[in-house]
Amino acid sequence: MSVGFQTVQDALENYKSAIYEQDAARFLATFAADIHIYDCWESWACTGISAWKEIVAAWFAGLREEGVVLRTDFADLVVESNANLAFVRCAITFAAYNKSGEKLREITNRFTFGLRNEQESWVIAHAHSSLPISLETGKGLFDVR
């Protein structure tokens, strides 16, 4: 899918709306072909758009199977950029809603994105998601914020 993001904010808005619409192709267009991701869930890293595509397809299929949509909100957003590179840090809340609009659950993760301007379009080349970890239990703290 060929989508151009003139600004970093355009790429971030696409990230949010593609998740809400569960549009995997549009969501994946936000990422560079050589994307490198450190995520909170199960794997140490994900490298390359093909591997990320499999994860995203399973994620969106699970949401559809459950009958939920995710609303994605950015907080504490900081963007620093020049003509070719951008650094973004923020907190992202993913809130799941059923078809009647009832909120079922939510999680907020800390995110860092590294973007680059490729052929006059901003794409995410690196993403890092994290949670604080309890020193007592070694488990992620989902409700610290």
From TrEMBL:
Pfam name, any one: SnoaL_3
Gene3D superfamilies with a match to the protein in the record: 3.10.450.50
Residue ranges constituting the SnoaL-like domain according to the UniProt record: 8-133
Ranges annotated as spanning the membrane: none
Protein name: SnoaL-like domain-containing protein
